[in-house]
Amino acid sequence: MVIVIGIIIYFFHDRLKWIGNLPGDIRITRENFQFYFPVTTMIIFSIIATIIIWLLEKFNRLIH
To answer: What is the DSSP string of the chain?
Structure first.
């Protein structure tokens, strides 16, 4: 799965600029300090991963 995600990012990086720049992502920039915490992005990825895992489990139950 990590390899597939890496390939997607490699080939579609120009179309994925919204990742990490969503409203709710915390970004603090000072003179000698930068802090970035992608709250909204992590929530969206978590929801997507949960749906994928749920679908895989459901599909697995149908086969067996």
So the answer is: -HHHHHHHHHHHGGG-TTTT-STT-EEEE-SS-EEEE-HHHHHHHHHHHHHHHHHHHHHHHHH-
Return d(Cα 40, Cα 8) in angstroms, integer: 20
The predicted-structure confidence for 40-57, as pLDDT tens digits, reads as follows: 999 999 999 999 999 999
Rounded CA-CA distance 51/57 in Å is: 10
Shortest CA distance to 37 belongs to which of 49, 50, 21? 21
Q: What is the pTM of this model?
A: 0.69
Residues near 27 by Cβ (< 8 Å), separated by ≥ 6? 34, 35, 36, 37
Distance CA 19, CA 11 (A): 15
